[in-house]
TrEMBL record:
Keywords: FAD, Flavoprotein. It is found in: Mitochondrion matrix. Residues 28-160 form the Amine oxidase domain. GO terms for molecular function: oxidoreductase activity. InterPro entries: Amino_oxidase, FAD/NAD-bd_sf. This is Pyridine nucleotide-disulfide oxidoreductase domain-containing protein 2.
Amino acid sequence: ILDHWFESEPLKATLATDAVIGAMASPHTPGSGYVLLHHVMGELEGQRGAWGYVAGGMGALSQAIARSAAARGAHIFAEKAVCHVLLGRDGQAQGVALQDGTEVKSKLVLSNASPQITFLELTPQEQLPKDFVQRIQQVDTVSPVTKINVAVDRLPSFLAAPNTHDGRPLPHHQCSIHLNCESTHLLHQAFTEATHGHPSSRPMIELCIPSALDPGLAPEGCHVVSLFTQYTPSVLAGGRSWDEQARNAYADTVFDCIEAYAPGFKASIIGRDILTPPDMERIFGLPGGNIFHGGMSLDQLYFARPAPCYSGYRSPIPGLYLCGSGAHPGGGVMGAAGRNAARVALEDFRRL
C-alpha cells in the first residue's frame, strides 16, 4: 500500500510504524496494512487521521469518564480487585464478588478486562462451552512493546532541528517523533531480531513529549518523554526472563539511539521507568503485555473478535458483556467497543 502511494523511503517507513504498532509483525507481514488503516481511520476535532494528547495525562481521561458516570449515579469502587463473576442458578450473571468478600449485585455485568481474564479467570469454566474456552486460550497475545517513561531536565535538541536559545518547545517537539525509521528494512530487521529472542539492536522508537503542550505535567524547564519502542520479545533467547540487568541494557540501547539524533539527551535524564511485555502484563493485566488485549491480525478481527459467534459484545453467559479492546473493533483510545457494548447491554436491559 505504501509503495503504491509514496516514493520516499523515510516517509514510507515512518507511516509503516502505524502498521506494526503494538504488533509482533514486520511491515512486510501480510495483513499489516489493516493495522495502518485502524490507526488512521478516526478523526480528532474534525481532522481525519489526527491524534492528540489528553490534558493532564492519560489518567485524566479515566477520571473524566468516572466523573461523568458518578454524576449520573454510578458507584465506583477504586482499588477493589474482582475475584469472580456471580452467577444465578439459571446461569445468568448477577454481579461480581470482590477479593475482600464484598458482593456487588447487578442485573448486567460489563467487563473491560481482556477476554482471557474475563473468561478464563473470572468466570466459572463449567458454565462456558469448551470450544469457546479453547478459542479464548488460543488468542494470539504476543507483544513486541517496551514502554519507557523518562523525566528530563531540558528539551531534547535534535541535530536536524536544534533548539532555540530560549529553550521553548518547537513545532516538532509537539508532535510524534519517529526514530530509527529511515527505511522499512530497518523495521524488518528489528522485528527479525525479536523473533529470535533478542531485543532489537536498533529499535523502532516513537518519541512524544506531552509536556511540550501540557506544561503542568513537569516542573518548569523540565519535561516528560514517552518512548514507545519495538521490538522486544516477552521471553529472551534461551528462555531467560527479563531481569533488571536486561531491562537497563535495553533502555541503554534505546537511549544510545536517541543520543545519535539528539546529542545530550542521556545527560538530561533524571528518571526513567522501563516496562517490558511481562511488566505490562503484571501491572496492567494485559495478556502477554499486548496493549490491544490480543493481536490486531485479520484472523482476530471483526466477527472473530474475540471469538466467532461472540463478536456482538454478548458472551455465553447471559448478562455478561465484553466491552474492552478484546472486543470489536479492537484496540485504540477511541471508546468504540465500550459504546457499542453499552448499547447492546441497554437493549437487553430493557427486555429484562
